[in-house]
Amino acid sequence: MQTCYCHSGLTYEQCCQRYHQAELVAPTPAALMRSRYSAFVLGLGEYLYQTHHPDYRQGLTIEQLSQQDVTWIKLKIIFQAISPDEHFGVVEFKAWYQNSDTRVCLHERSEFIKQDERWFYTTGEMNPKAIGRNDPCPCQSGRKFKQCCLSRKTS
């Protein structure tokens, strides 16, 4: 069986395929991030378009999202957080890809919103600065990072 492209450790059938085939919706921003990475690997532009919030598409097309001009290598989730009201989420990740003869690391902190019981990608900050212990928590709780999501930080 094919292991999932998102490197979750599960098979593709147990993991992202269920979201790609609309059997389930991603239950968390991190699950949506993983499924979007797998969709980039597979060139599933329709899925990427549908999971990108309409207010943030800025002219992006299914055709553009379907292009497979790089070879995706690996995904690593660095940090994930969900706001206390469970309508806003943040996922920081690194994704490696091969472009011609160059290996590149894409480092992004992505933002997600939940609308009608579905998570959507909105925007991302490339090469984000590290979150300090005393910085505001990215989950928008209003608390300091050390008093909020730092204790729940996952790798």
From TrEMBL:
Give the source's domain of life in one word: Bacteria
Q: Which SUPFAM superfamilies match?
A: NTF2-like (SSF54427), Sec-C motif (SSF103642)
Which intervals hold domain YchJ-like middle NTF2-like?
A: 28-124
The secretion signal range is none
Query: Which InterPro entries does the UniProt entry name for this protein?
Result: NTF2-like_dom_sf, SEC_C_motif, YchJ-like_M
Which positions, given as ranges, span the membrane?
none
Q: What is this protein called?
A: SEC-C motif-containing protein
Q: Which organism is it from?
A: Celerinatantimonas diazotrophica
